[in-house]
Amino acid sequence: MSLNRPADLARRLGRRCGLAAVLLCLGLLLLLMASRDTGAGDRFVAGHLLVASESMGDPRFRQSVIYMIDHSDTGALGLIVNRPVAKVPIAAALKGLGLEAEQAEGEIPIYQGGPVEPGRGFLLHSTDIEASNSRPLGAGIALGAPAEILRLIGRGEGPRHSLLAFGYAGWGPGQLDGELARADWFVIPAEIDLVFADDPRQSWRQAMTRRGIDL
Fold it and tell me: Which domain, by its residues, includes 97?
């Protein structure tokens, strides 16, 4: 996996923000990513699930299921959605951002989103609620500003599904295309029940089954 363009973008945002407010930079990240030309043609897989094949040689991505946020001629970025780490109270997550957390209720699952920039957070959520700073990605899924979504969840007004991932998977120009050609990955449509799975540790096997492979 290459740092290249996606990591450069995240790193520039990190330099502009203090550590306590790093997740608040996601709003700017959304604007920058939304302005990029994602190209055309079937080879671009943004908005789909990238699933590691049985022959995946990189142990960091073995049996991983990745929701692809961005894929273009300049690189690609996605979040692993089947590696849960813990569930944390919304109040604790808000306090970690240096935000007011009084009377905030509920929990949110935390995921290992990938090996690049493991301290950087991304929040995926379902689109059953309207959020001003969220970027719709398709299939009823959006990339949201963590502070905004966490506040909504804490007030009992949040989306039905959400997850907070730290780190991401990143590819340089043409790199993912080469890995796809080498059959390291296959692509399936993104579905809510796989992105926000009740048992994410079973998501890889479920994705293989949906491709028509019986394990």
Answer: 4-38+49-123+163-210
